Amino acid sequence: MPVYTLPELTYDYAALEPHISARIMELHHSKHHAAYVAGANAALEQMEEARAANSFGAINKLEKDLAFHLGGHINHSIFWTNLAPNAAERPSGELSAAIDEFFGSFDAFAAHFSAASLGIQGSGWGILSWDPVGSRLIIQQLFDQQANTAQGTTPLLQLDMWEHAFYLDYQNVKADYVKAFWNIVNWDNVAERFAAARAHSSAILLLS
Predict the structure, then answer these.
(1) Which residues does 81 contact at the CB level (< 8 Å), separation at least 6?
(2) pTM of the full structure
(3) Which CATH number fits domain 93-207: 3.30.930.10, 3.55.40.20, 1.10.10.10, 3.60.15.10?
(4) DSSP β-bridge partners for residue 136
């Protein structure tokens, strides 16, 4: 059976300093993300064993385990590509125009995204998503790794608000972490995700 694997980063652990330290990046990627990969694979293996034995007493737990760990794997896989050293300050082109259209301005978008991220109760993610139903950009709060986002939305930009993402550098001052995040957003990657999400939406509409 195919298994999930930990993706390699396209930059060194120290590349995002001083905004995110090499120590956090190493722990975050090689320990935390790796644990989600292992957890997702373990859940799949146990589901396979349950099917073989025709014994589904633990299926509810296994489904929850898979959702949580696979959510962690997917979220982090997007997050790493959303970050880049020497990043541009702001998006350009069609992504910039869309942000202006749906949020009024980049500054208004950044304020909304920051507030949503900081307002998460407990652990989770701030996310800029494409909503294919409304054909618009929206901002969402994702609780834990898999709860509270609309079905079918496509994540474009994610900010990890779990303590393991920032505590060694920023301790309990989450606002400084969110402020630093804007210095390392890979807007080229977000723009590519935006273009792909809109194209995918068009393809789905053609099926209706």
Answers:
(1) 10, 186, 189
(2) 0.94
(3) 3.55.40.20
(4) 131
